[in-house]
Amino acid sequence: MTNVNMHSQPHPSMIRDITLAKDGQLKIDWVEKHMPILNHVRKIFETEKPFAGKRITICLHLEAKTAYLAKVVQAGGAEVAVVASNPLSTQDDVVAALAAGGIHAYAWYGATDEEYKAHIQMALDFEPDAIIDDGGDLVSTLHQERPELIARILGGCEETTTGILRLRSLEKEQTLQFPMIAVNDAYCKYLFDNRYGTGQSVWDGIMRTTNLVVAGKTAVVVGYGWCGKGVAMRAKGLGANVVVCEIDPIKATEAIMDGFTVLPMIQAARIGDFFVTVTGNRDCIAEQHFVVMKDGAILANAGHFDVEINKVELKQLATSVRTVRKNIEEFTLEDGRCIYLLAEGRLVNLAAGDGHPAEVMDMTFALQALGLEYLVKQHEELDAKVYAVPAELDQLVAKLRLQSWGVEIDALTGEQLAYLNSWKE
Description:
- Its EC number is 3.13.2.1.
- Its cofactor is NAD(+).
- One of its GO terms (molecular function) is hydrolase activity.
- Its main location: cytoplasm.
- It is an enzyme of class 3 (hydrolase).
- This protein is globular.
- The chain is built from 17 helices and 15 strands.
- The chain has helices spanning about 20-35, 35-50, 65-75, 90-100, 115-125, 135-145, 160-170, 185-210, 225-235, 250-255, 265-270, 285-290, 310-315, 350, 360-380, 390-405, 415-420; strands at about 55-60, 80-85, 105, 130-135, 155-160, 180, 220, 240-245, 260, 275, 295-300, 320-325, 330-335, 340, 385-390.
- With about 425 residues, the chain is α/β, with parallel strands linked by helices.
- The chain has two domains: about 20-190 and about 355-405, 3-Layer(aba) Sandwich (Rossmann fold), CATH 3.40.50; about 200-350, NAD(P)-binding Rossmann-like Domain (Rossmann fold), CATH 3.40.50.720.
- Helix 8 crosses helix 9 and helix 15 packs antiparallel against helix 16.
């Protein structure tokens, strides 16, 4: 695969209001103070310039932590463009700060579908040499609509489970055109970001939006992957009675042994006060569930796309719909029951909150930055496949995390290594 170095002139940034940059920079400064691993990576990048002469397009949730990742990549010598992976998670002041700092930005809060797609196109008109994607929007658009750009793409990194499912599908069909690194599958991503990050940020988003108590209520968690584990764990810690809905018998068994009740969705729908979908699949909560829910049931989604709760069927059942608080829609049904949907069924932790804690995203975004460096350096040796994050990078991020806490761990002696590596002993 060859990389063409001649670039066209990129579009100017398309943002809401550049005068918001000062407020956005304060947010970025705050997370920088709490991301020591990424600070370590930045210092190396500033010296070695691994992305010199390269253009990188980043499609992620555009809030402060993502902004700092973009600045770290920029410090590595890259010309950087950013675009939103979700129109409701974009923070206009943060995007303005990036634009003021020389990063091309194409996003604003509440973009329509047409605007959102136009922003994606502008970010690709940037003619990137490599990408960071979240949910596969850049990869899908490149393969379906912008094939003329593929020859110059060295590859990229993917952030989420949903995006990796798309990449695996492309790889299985043998239509993936460049190598992609599955950052979501790294230990230092899913064990901490998916579990502790999602667990905390989902309930932060729900509680700040509703201002309601969780203790003593029934929380239904739909999906018991790593994100679902985190959501269930934090719900339990807040005092909720937790019910898990699953399709995988192994995960359902795990949920029971973790102390949770497991029920089919149709049964859980009758007793839940809070519902959180975390599956990556569509129609997990639909008409047959809405019709049996309690009056006052609250629905939230923590999966990448707004398809897990069937909004179309909910609206069809409603006799009236109104916004009762910011990010809360009230759907009144024919019998007078009300069901509440948070953040339009989009990612509740980002659309109605600030996303994962900075210390958690420090690990994930360090993996993104290091994975991107690996890809740019090794792309000639990589086929158009989905690759795991190299184990040594996963280990490095974990070591840096421990160092930032001042924690030391043991190391194997020579005799212990020999014992483990010999079948004779």
